[in-house]
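Why does residue order matter? Because the sequence determines the fold. Keep that principle in mind as you read this record.
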Amino acid sequence: MSRYQQLAYTDELLADDTVHRRYADGRQEWRRRGPGATVTWRDDRGDSGVDEPLGRKIVKRTLRDGSVRYGRESGYGRTLWSDGVLTVNRSSFGGRLGAILAGVAGGALLGALVLPPMSLTPEEEGELRNQAAQSSSGSGETGGDYGDWDDGYGDDDDFG
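Structure:
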């Protein structure tokens, strides 16, 4: 039995360069690039927020009410959030492959999921941003969600 609540989703690139995300629980979300590497989103239940990459694998989700949740991207279209939800992208090959592999041997083939931080200080967040900037300087990487919105939703960069 899984320790995490698994929630699958699919993404669809729309003509206006936004992404329409459909979750398996029926929720729908519309995502748009924000300033820098951020992604702004709103859902059909009246919630909204901003997702920001902090380093290569950590995502900070700031909700409209100011509350914060962190996620750790785990490859194969999977992101484990600090509230115990494991989102799985079924849009990309990696997401489908990840879902298949997760079903085999409880995901043992994918390796153990590492919990994201429950909280970070502003200094810790700044350090993660600096490390990401240093590691991507000169490499041509954008380091953000949907570096190319039409690239098939890379399995490591989906801010699940």
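The two ends are 22 Å apart (CA to CA).
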